[in-house]
Specification:
The chain is mostly helical.
Length: 287
Amino acid sequence: MSNTKLASGRGRNGPSLPAARSTLGVGAARITNALMPFVGLAALLLLWALITTVFKIPDYLLPSPIAVIRRAVLEWRILFSQTSYTLIEIVAGFLGSILIGVPMAFAVVLSRPVERVVLPMVVASQAIPKVAIAPILVVWLGFGLFPKIAISFLIAFFPILVSTIAGLKSVETEMIDLVRSMGASTMKIMLRVRLPSALPQIFSGLKVAIALSVVGAIVGEFVGADRGLGFLLLTATGALDGTLVWAALLVLIGLGILLFQIVVAVERIAIRWHVSIRANDQQIFTS
């Protein structure tokens, strides 16, 4: 009996050897996948350092990454305070675009007259450069948070609206007819059939929108602000303070990546049943 257990690789309480090796392989794959972005970042910083050292580029044009990191550590209080101000603008504009864009998409799908009236106006609003209307918003709303939030909202609103409309319309008509034949109302069909099916496309729009919200907040601060990362970038550029400019840029990039990953994490929780999430998880076992 003991020889049989030994040959099969299974103890009385432990898993089989192939299962244990498979578990170890999956764990190693997860660690490797988690470390790959950091390896890429390290390679990029090394290339950056080599370029600045070999070509002896002045700091006001392109400082070395060591100088930028050292400056970020020295000025962390200023960077933190300016980042917190910009973060409020980004999150407020992004959430506002969700709160208005998704219900408007519902109205567009439910009513053909609303679609004919709203969509041309929305497209026309996106044809106007936000830099052109930013000064007008500053005149209307002042130099506080509101014009920056408005610009962030205007930029993030369009991809959320379009992706939600596309997702809500992509449900098969046979499914809608089946649910309607069971006595479901139009609103129940929207909430229980169309909305779950549209979630993958909605999250695609959200991921685009969160990145654009960062751009919108910075554009608003460029036009008129006395705080924020955009204001810090303008003042540091005017003073030819290259290390502070790049320190603010690195913080802005990190902020954008963090917000994007938060949306991705919410997506994985909300639609873990979708094929895109399951396929991404399956790559761990095949890579």
